[in-house]
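EI: anyone free to look at a 284-residue chain?
SC: sure, send it
EI:
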Amino acid sequence: MRRRFAVLGMAGVVTAALVAFAPAAAAAAPAPTTGTVSSGRTKLTVRSGPTAASAAVGALRNGAKVALVCSVKGPKAKGRVRTTDRWDRLTGGAYVSDAYVRRRAAPPACPPPPPPAPAPKPAPVIVPPSGAVPVGTWVAPLTGRGTSGFRTISRPDHDGVDLAAPRDTPIRAAADGTVVTVVCNTSGPSCDVDGSSDTRGCGWYVEIRHAGSLTTRYCHLIRRPEVVVGQQVTAGRTIGFVGTSGHSTGPHLHFEVHYGPLPATRLNAIDPAEFMSRAGAPVV
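SC: here you go
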């Protein structure tokens, strides 16, 4: 008799513990529904999405046990079990057609997907006042063929213009100013070797600060530039030579113009083609 009371007492403790934890259990996600694949002699394709057109990511043999997290509506399919437009999401995130799954209960509907993240706002286009662009004091950095413009539809993050030219073509300072940056910027082994589409960075590049809060940047030089930080340069002085270092697939100059306080960033980049045209030194 004492043993029986002891067992009953333990059962009461367990029951009390379950009651104590009831709120946490209620907040937990429902357990997956168990199902059995019924696909006959062929395997049931597991897909990346809830459609027959989604990529196949695996296959389940007939009779395999599956854990169904939830189901979503998709294209209708006629299977060995039923004809239905429901697709079951498995625990790994892939899907199978519910038309080939035997189950005692239907899995719950999947929650709606989260709304897409808002598209990043484009960087503002800054136009310097006309007094900051004195005509006659600017020169084109080189004579080249324009191959990519400023923030095009296909390249919205392209903050300059690309001017194709042969290797070792001299690059000129676009106006009088002070050299503020001379840097090798690459994810490759060196800026003294050709870059590629997989390489990141501007390669060898120079930045020059000009009057009127203007800065110009010259990228992908073939070797260390011909100027140093702090050096005063005049418009038309050779500062380096065309190359293809950094993120580059062929010899060209990537040329940027920035208006505002240093440093030069994409937030203060302006369209070089429009600016240089206003300055009387068109680049394209």
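EI: The first strand starts at residue 33 and ends at 37.
SC: 👍
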